[in-house]
Amino acid sequence: MNILPQQFHKLVLHWFDRHGRKHLPWQQNKTAYRVWVSEIMLQQTQVNTVVPYFERFIQQFPDLSTLANAHEDEILHAWAGLGYYSRARNLHKTAKIVMNDFNGIFPSDLRKLQTLPGIGQSTAGAILSIAFNQPAAILDGNVKRVLARFHGMTQPINEKATENQLWALAEKYTSTQRAADYTQAMMDLGATCCIRGTPHCDICPLVRYCVAHAQGMSAILPVKKASRELPVRSATFLLIQHKEKLLLTKRPSTGIWGGLWSFPEISGLPEIKMIRAHCRQHLRITVSEYKMLDSFRHTFSHYHLDIFPVLMPIQHMPPIVMDDSLQIWYNPYHPESIIGLPKPIQLIMKKL
Ligand code: SF4
């Protein structure tokens, strides 16, 4: 297998001209702002899931300054359901930095882009190539898969040394002329042709030169170092209800659901007398009635969380015991304001 970089990107671009996706919302009215938002949303998330979120997000925050001036809760609310909420918080931080330090103009420089929160090398490459047509390489999951198969790489792609080799290949093949189309083409090739599992080699523009295909290994490559099984944790969510309102607390800005609103919680599933004692001590609330609701599992990237919601109606609303920017009484039926709620919290509220 011998292929020159210009042959490689010629084949890929020719395929893109005929079969690539050209009607995605972020491909229209292309600006650095829209490309950046789409790239952040597309991290760890499939195109079909991202499209409606992107359209709503852009409608609500049409430009950098609207996003920079928005309240974090509005942004987290718009993000609810996409997961990995640090992405939303980083979007907000980056919007503010670009407004304050770059006069509201998105930097078009790889090094500067990578200093912004949430923008790593691949995302910076995608922004530079798609928005500015600069020949910057990307190496997202799709591109890794295509290149690892194309070169028949049998070493785990989640090892640093392999990743360095893949970066070198990605840079070698990047088109200098049609950088934006090439980046989009490689993403599309990985998403529609060189897919996970068994790829569609019969319709792949690279099939003549592909090592994995020639060696009958396309369905088993790339390999990854086995990841350990996810641990299971559990938490009891305290749904303290006064009339239609529920007590919510704001989560710390780091960690899971950072900065979003959630129910007070206790780790594990303690006995009811422990739950009552916790409410008395930490929330100054005396609980008499209670009802265990259906438990369910929510999976994060690094662990499973078994959630046990317990509904505890109370007759008298106690005073807020924390700073009221950290604790609120929230009416899920008639919300008074937009707040960021994680998807599992929304699901519990819908079932009440
Ligand atoms: S020939 Fe098959 S395995 Fe090789 S790059 Fe194309 S789709 Fe992937």
**If you compute it from the alpha carbons, what radius of gyration comes out, rounded to the nearest whole angstrom?**
24 Å
State the CATH class of the largest domain.
Answer: Mainly Alpha
Number of domains: 2
Shape, principal axes of CA atoms: elongated
The fold-level CATH name of the largest domain is Endonuclease III, domain 1
How much of the polypeptide forms β-strand, as a percent range? 5-15%
CATH level 4 superfamily of the largest domain: Hypothetical protein, domain 2
Distance between the termini: 61 Å
How many DSSP H or I helices? 14
Encode the helix/strand succession as letters: HHHHHHHHHHHHEEEEHEEEEH
What ligand species are in this complex?
A: iron/sulfur cluster
Helix content: 40-55%
Computed structural class = alpha+beta
CATH architecture of the largest domain: Orthogonal Bundle
Largest sheet: 8 strands, mixed
How many distinct beta strands? Answer: 8
Describe it for me?
By secondary structure, the protein is α+β, with helices and mostly antiparallel strands. The protein has helices at 5-19, 32-42, 47-60, 64-69, 72-79, 86-101, 110-114, 121-132, 141-150, 160-173, 179-193, 211-214, 272-283, 343-351; strands spanning 232-242, 245-250, 261-262, 265-267, 291-292, 296-299, 304-314, 327-330. The chain folds into two domains: 5-214, Hypothetical protein, domain 2 (Endonuclease III, domain 1, Orthogonal Bundle); 232-351, Nucleoside Triphosphate Pyrophosphohydrolase. It contains 14 helices and eight strands. Strand 1 and strand 2 (245-250) form a beta hairpin. Helix 1 crosses helix 11 and helix 2 runs antiparallel to helix 8. It is elongated. Bound molecules: iron/sulfur cluster.
